[in-house]
Design a protein that fits this description.
This protein is of the alpha/beta class. The protein has 2 domains: 47 residues; 252 residues, Alpha-Beta Complex (2-enoyl-CoA Hydratase, Chain A, domain 1), CATH 3.90.226. It is 49% helix and 16% strand. A hairpin with a 2-residue loop joins strand 2 and strand 3. The radius of gyration is 21 Å and the shape is globular. The relative contact order is 0.12.
């Protein structure tokens, strides 16, 4: 059953009426016609709503509990996945999962941030917020892919790196900075997909890629709207205003040159049509990866570094 967001209340009311009528319709043609009329109205309202989402509403959609997570993409897109654990320095971090697999018939290294679907898995994966050992594991896996000349595909979905004191004690800032450095240093194709939240350095640590794809209703920013509002206005209630100012939507970021392509979502968001979005992401990754495979390591490295050096100039 679909979980409705606050701004979807009119749609939820219509869907509720439709469900009630379906339970009592029987063979009453008048009720059947009324159900069809209400369904058309609900579909139209859903389209209109999602065509005019505010940045804050997009944040809510990106955080929807039913939105496909990394494991959904992993199960659908990658065959023969072999997870590799640990950073060889401290331990295993379940917020970042990575390993070898086959994507589109080609061996690749896949790395992604996993939030979890329910209370148990969210706790296990620390709500998708990696600690230093997670980023050091990602570095190890990217270096391994570089050694064996395998493309790296990363999936970004995190509110940010874990802000706890133990993470700071183990060198969170250094781990993130080093991870970005490795992204900009390997000589194999690196492709990143922002599938939900792209929060702060926790996201760009695995997204400094040759090509950055982003789902239509995903968000990508230096800080959460609530965090930004707390700093600027001393109140998290100003989050909608912060989201507007941050230019965190896929449409804004494409215009600014921060991302390279937007992956269209089905009407109503990825959480309503998981099969469709998984297929769309797979096709888009194929289209983006093939041109990168034609470039040699030196060119891939040069293009990636120049991309981020120039970032921010477009639209200024």
């Amino acid at each position: 059953m679909t979980k409705f967001l606050d701004f979807e209340k009119p749609i939820a009311d219509l869907e509720g009426k439709i469900e009630e009528l379906r339970h009592i319709s029987g063979r009453d043609l008048n009720i059947v016609d009324e159900v069809a009329r209400l369904q058309n109205k609900a579909d139209r309202l859903l389209r209109q709503t999602y065509q005019n989402l505010t940045p804050w509403q997009k944040v809510q959609v990106a955080r929807h509990p039913d939105r496909p997570k990394f494991f959904d993409y992993l199960d659908s897109l990658v065959d023969d996945f072999m997870p590799l654990s640990g950073d060889r320095l401290f331990g295993e971090d379940c917020a970042i999962i990575g390993g070898f697999g086959r994507l589109l018939g080609r061996s690749v290294m896949v790395i992604g941030q996993q939030k979890g679907h329910d209370t148990e898995t969210r706790i296990k994966h620390n709500f998708g917020m990696p600690k230093p050992e997670g980023y050091r594991k990602a570095q190890r896996l990217m270096r391994l892919a570089d050694r064996f000349n395998l493309p790296v595909i990363t999936f970004v979905d995190t509110a940010g790196a874990f802000p706890g004191i133990e993470a700071e004690e183990r060198g969170q800032a250094e781990a993130i900075a080093s991870c970005i450095h490795v992204c900009l240093d390997i000589k194999v194709p690196l492709l990143s997909v922002v599938i939900g939240e792209g929060g702060s350095g926790g996201a760009i640590a695995i997204a400094a890629a040759n090509t950055v794809l982003m789902l239509e209703h995903a968000v990508y920013s230096v800080i959460s709207p609530e965090g930004c509002a707390s700093i600027l206005w001393r109140s998290a209630t100003k989050a909608p205003e912060a989201a507007e100012a941050q230019k965190l939507t896929a449409q804004d970021l494409l215009q600014l040159g921060v991302i390279d392509k937007i992956i269209a979502e089905p009407v109503g968001g990825a959480h309503r049509h998981k099969t469709a979005i998984l297929r769309q992401v797979k096709e888009t990754i194929e289209g983006a990866l093939v041109p990168l495979l034609t470039l040699d390591g030196a060119q891939l490295l040069k293009d990636r570094r120049e991309k981020f050096v120039k970032m921010g100039q477009k639209g200024l």
